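Hello K.,

You asked for the raw outputs rather than the summary table, so here they are, unedited. I folded two proteins back to back in the same session to keep the settings identical. This is the first:
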Amino acid sequence: MSHMVLVTGVAGFIGSHVADHCLSQGMCVVGLDDLSGGFVDNIPAGATFVRGSVTDAALVERLFQEHAFDYVYHLAAYAAEGLSHFIRRYNYQTNLLASVNLVNEAVKHDVRCFVFTSSIAVYGAGQTPMTENLTPKPEDPYGISKYAFELDLEAANTMFGLPFVVFRPHNVYGERQNIADRYRNVIGIFMNQVMQGRPMTVFGDGSQSRAFSHIDDVAPLIARAPLVSAAYNNVFNAIADAFGVPCRINHLPARNEVLHAFSSHEKVQRVFGMHPQVELREGLDRMAAWARVRGPMPQVVFNDIEVRKHLPPSWANSEQDDVER
């Protein structure tokens, strides 16, 4: 008998790939997405698509009443770390309170496993390599909302016995990424700028460093998580040349952000028995080939800024774009 699963954020980058792998494992997938950051053509053909938001408690309740979900994969979020300082209310409503709607229904309907994609933003600065046994010290509202929900899942497990698996991915890139988003996904932003004939924008002097994971090294792990009993109630870190054009960079004023960020993947490799398969060079070439077919996209500007104090000038100017590192 196949498992019935809910994938939130199914039209998004990671969510659509997770849904693909769930389907390939014989699962029946119901996908929920409000299309605020995803695209209909990302949704796998075998998934039942419901357009709506996880913030809609009545809709979430109805979905759980109509479908006997075995597993929930919660990937819907607005993942803009730097911008989250200036959209606190939206951040907590979308990334924390909306997630609680899912937990409430998962508890009431005896879901067998709740899989959540958190972020290494929960670690904050100065903790490298980032390992799962470190005490999280998030420094921005986005990281705070992710860690708060991790704690909520632990509380739900203690009180109600709801099994969970948490992944903390970081800088995942690859095909289907939203390259129109000006606040996050640095590789996608760079590729979009290159295709538009524009210089790549970098905050500060460019000395920041990040680790990147290709989607094909991340999505299969997330999809398999409920099937790996040793993963239950654990947290895991998930892990210009491609266009043949000169490297042109536009340096913008530095932001208050983590200088270096990379995480350890020893735990996830030990439990899942999987190792990264896609080297950065190969992954960039594959994404670039996809981006060429997709073509450049106009920037999407977030218009509901709540606090403008200390807002980076480039974000205040809708004609200039930048990157979320």
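The second followed immediately with the same parameters:
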Amino acid sequence: MSKIGVIGGSGLYEIEGLKIKKTEKIKTPFGEPSGEYVIGDLSGKEVVFLPRHDKGHRISPTHINYRANIYGMKKLGVERIISVSACGSLKEGIKPLDFVVPLQFVDRTSQARRHTFFDKGIVGHISFAHPVCQDLAKALYDAGKSKKVNAHLGGTYLNMEGPQFSTLAESNLYRSWGMDIIGMTNMAEARLAREAEICYATLAAVTDYDCWHQTEEEVTVDIILENLKKNVENAKEILKDVISCISDERSCPCKDALKYAIVTDPKSITKDIKKTLDIIIGKYIK
């Protein structure tokens, strides 16, 4: 049975109804993940849960060890990851307390986040035109609609650096580009999940209008937390529904993303690199 990973963002530090079997601390070649992985049963499926900011929300978006988090999911046998994330809206029609399942990302991070497993001694160029698993995204959207929440399928998530919120000029610039929502975490996760041949999709909980909306208050942590509390219960119900209906078999291209991506001559790949990346490249590089 394939495992389903859930990465919890701001406000989601545990999953109610998850029958916990064990917690596991994973060692990775890329350092420490955000925290312990919680492994259990939800809706008849095996689920691996990780709060990306750790319990107590101690890790800022810039300093999350994204590589270790995704590597740990891969090591535990996860084939699909659902990212639950708080975000701001850049469109009038996407209101606080709505949910968005974006299909595209734009990266505006400025510090050195590690976005790839292929950075030393091996080169891999994955196809990333469509960064989200279409099958998983559609399942998330359908689950949202079944729960009678206001859900949107599609649009672009702009990944800013943070931890500060946007200036008004930045917010208006992103709106002029046609961006739909804004957050601080998902770009690196999506890239690394694709390299690891894990399906990835985002359930984005809208908490605010960033700072561009003239008739709304400027975004503050208080506003975000208040709306998160309202949204988190709906998010948990959506998770239960979508996890129960996910098939064990995958028919999407995510599962073979590395098939033609590795361009380094296998003879030039050292034993250490092969060992480090075995769970990712092993089926292609012997």
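The longest helix spans residues 221-245.

Happy to rerun anything if the numbers look odd on your end.

Regards,
P.
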